[in-house]
Here is the input.
Amino acid sequence: MKNAFFVAIAFTVVPSLLLIAARPVAPQSAATIKAFLDSDCVSCHNKESWVANLSLEGEFTQIGQNREVLEKVVRKLKSGQEPKTSITGVKLEPARRREIVAWLEGELDRNAPAYTSPPGLHRLNRTEYGNAIKDLFDLDMDPTTLLPTDDSTRGFDNIAGALGMSPELAATYVKAAATINHNVVTSGAGTAIGKKLWVCRPTSATEETTCARRIIANIVTHAYRRPASMDDVNALMEIYQSRRRDVVNTPYYFRPPGAFEPFHTGIEAALREILTDRNFLYRREVEPPNLTAGQTYRISELELASRLSYFLCSRGPDDALLDLAARGQLRDPVVLERETRRMLADPRAEALSKNFAGQWLNLRSLERVAPLPSYPDFDEPLRAAMRRETGCCRQQQPILVHCGRYREEPDVPVQFPI
Ligand code: HEC
Here is the structure.
């Protein structure tokens, strides 16, 4: 009897203790969200008074039809700007706020219309080109000395439509390739530059072909942002062989400076080809055949890897990302999130705030503008802090949505003094 009593106590008390520890919030559903809006919001936002031109009255379970309004609601709640609950006179409890926001965001994502814009041909912009050269050869070359500025569309210089190609520009790329090549191929053994390129060094003439194939396949994989195919390597090997033969067949004393050594000269010719190839200069995405207008499709994993990497870091995918994509594992949501976090933690994701957010939020003009004289406290440290704070958002969740206006803590809206 006594035992049964304790057992009963254990069964009733322990679970409720656990529940208290976990601070439970009832799971949300369309019905609970509707009840919340009805009790907390509809007194103002209804179809009679239309406060702020917004009504939250009625059925909001049809997420797809209420996207715009619900996105606004999410923003309002996440920034903690909704009024206090009229019933209790206090703000939403943080756990409940998170639950409501999570449910709404989840439903909005699930009901998001598929993105159908055709990929187009996306030429690397100048920053991306410089990064590509750095990643390929560990070679720091100021891209502004190699290429002209990119045209921009509404302030963005990485939109496919803004990045055309003219005969003059094509010629510039050829020249840039020659300059880079010269720097790379003439770099001595043992330097960082050499290491990335010379993945092997032939010790005899018979080893040259095998080694050249390895070097070319390695560079192609990184330059084209996908595993090198047999066709890629074969085509480039022909160029290598023919240049190499030219040198061999030229007597020493007739060989031009810089084209002295057959193996190096062959590799240099192949490199020049790679650096002017459209697979390198463009982020190419291939549409599946027989698409009908408006039809959506999944981009390939390798295309996904490129998009992710260019978006976050303004550069091509690294080995880890390429490898996951090539093995068809990148799309797994767990892997994708892990990789995204890994890349955001990498200092190279600065590029996201510098290049994307810098253009999106027009942060670049932060360097030039000064506020009205009515803000006498504005000084250079504040300018720097403003820039840094916006940059900091990349480490937070959501990555960009609220970068422009708020910190992450929902109850502390930050007001910038401009
Ligand atoms: C006491 C009246 C009142 C209540 C209750 C109220 N709001 Fe508002 N709401 C306003 C007013 C006034 C504005 C316009 C000023 C502003 O944006 O803060 C507004 C603006 C908004 C906007 C911005 C609309 C836009 O087009 O940008 C959203 C979103 C919003 N409210 C959501 C909510 C949500 C969600 C709730 C319930 C949690 C809520 N409001 C409760 C008065 C109210």
